[in-house]
Amino acid sequence: DAKTTQPPSMDCAEGRAANLPCNHSTISGNEYVYWYRQIHSQGPQYIIHGLKNNETNEMASLIITEDRKSSTLILPHATLRDTAVYYCIVRPPTSNSGYALNFGKGTSLLVTP
Amino acid sequence: AAGVIQSPRHLIKEKRETATLKCYPIPRHDTVYWYQQGPGQDPQFLISFYEKMQSDKGSIPDRFSAQQFSDYHSELNMSSLELGDSALYFCASSLEWNNEQFFGPGTRLTVL
User: Fold this and answer.
1) For residue A111, what are the contacts with CB-CB under 8 A and spacing of at least 6?
2) Which of A1, A78, A87, B107 could lock onto A106 through a cystine, CB 3.0 to 4.6 A?
3) Interface with chain B: mutation pick from A3, A39, A40, A103, highest number of B CBs within 10 Å
């Protein structure tokens, strides 16, 4: 699986957009970009994933550059409950046996009042 | 909506003892994953099962074993426990055709 690089920590004011970057310069053509987050000591939570096109759901938006070497997760209106470690994970498409998640270091996002 | 259930939520054992952690996936999910998260560490993949067969193996020690049963629940068996096994153990489940993994609340294992 492609390696990802994320900043270790970021701050964001409550109500503002949080933009979390991820570099994945060795990504292969069929590999997806997934984002998960982990709120302190809870089980990780799926946020969003994408291949080439930008994606949006009720939690966040995912912007993938045209060369697919980097992406940005956007939380449009961060709240205090968004304080968590955010993981960018690159993985191949689904298979019959599924694929384990390779959690890297992640970005610790602190949302402040 | 039903979530992944893990039991027990907390477990305290002595060195060299054994422990069994249980995971009940979301109904109709056919794939189960086990992850270990040590203090201050990121989750590390241990092992996974699809349709009751081992599908992938990560950094699982030889002292650990796991299986998935006919009702799709899974158990992680840990023997000869060491202090370094103290960690949060997460189970996740997914559908074969949709690899979004849903995580349980974890079991916190403390080895004294």
Assistant:
1) A11, A12, A13, A14, A18, A78, A79, A80, A81, A82, A83
2) A87
3) A103
